[in-house]
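Can anyone check this?
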Amino acid sequence: MKKFVAFLCGAAVALSALNCSATVSSDKIALADIRPGMTADEVVRIAGQPNFKSDNGHEWHYNNFGIKFEDYRPNIVEEIETRVNSASTPAGVYVGQSESVLNSTYGAADKVERDKYSTEYTYYSDDYSLAIEFKVVNGVIYKIECKLCD
């Protein structure tokens, strides 16, 4: 009987560990101090005027990152993305670092998707309203994207 109870306790601990996620606080989901959900005016105050705006104004491009605004709320940042090492997250993670920095900085990813050439690690905010994704190629961070979740 004692062995059975010990087994049940061990199984409960193991199952609870499987349900743990590495959610990240919302203030840690940003690039170059730009966060999903910010307004266009806030972006301009932080980063200045973009180098380029798309014809419809929904995409802005800076030297070190790009921004997409929501279709239905065109003043709200939906996504920030970078493929260069001069824009970092609030935790100091940037393109070009080893993928091992992700686990040591954010913990185990909430979602991992692999294909033939790359791996994408996704971390969600505490309330699941935001996500930060890291695309890794050959063990090196290739792209970082912060976005609003649907």
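Reply from J.R.: I decoded it. Confidence is low (pLDDT under 50) at residues 1-20.
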